Amino acid sequence: MDVADASSRRKVGTSVHITTLDGIVNVNSLFTLAVFIGLTWNPTDPLNSFVSGSSCAAGFSIAEDLVAFHVYSFSCFLFSSLVALGLKQAIRLSRGSVTYRFEIFAHINKTALRVGMLMSGAGSVCGCLFLMLALVNVVQIKLGTLACGSSYSFAAVVPLLIFVPIGLVIYVCMVLYAFTR
């Protein structure tokens, strides 16, 4: 393998990493916006619930869990974004460190990059799980608790509990695939 092949492979790998980190930050930003919108909603307002019977109405503990899951989700997304932005900055700083034949190469510790990307991905996955739990609590507040057996609550929660984990499994598989390459 000659120097030109190694340099083009290194530059492509670095641009792929930057694009991936940009994607993580963008998705985390959208989810963070959803978390902030969720935090502005007042779950204790009686007008927020469609439940007529008091036995199926969500209690104060579910409203507390809703806020707690939103905060946990925000923390995870913020952690993930900060790690991704830090890695991206490290890549950009290292790009200008070595010049060879008028081309710029990035010398990056691959292990640190992989661990950082894995941490950023784990933060995003945890943030999604906490956001999903917060949405389950929103459904319980709006449509009645799951313990009550409301068909509307189950109809809203079941797709959420199926599609989000499937999406997260696909995401984790892709991250692990990229991690091994």
UniProtKB/TrEMBL annotation:
Q: What is the protein's given name?
A: Maternal effect embryo arrest 60
* Keywords assigned by UniProt, alphabetized: Membrane, Transmembrane, Transmembrane helix
Entry's transmembrane regions: 21-41, 69-91, 112-136, 156-179
Signal peptide range equals: none
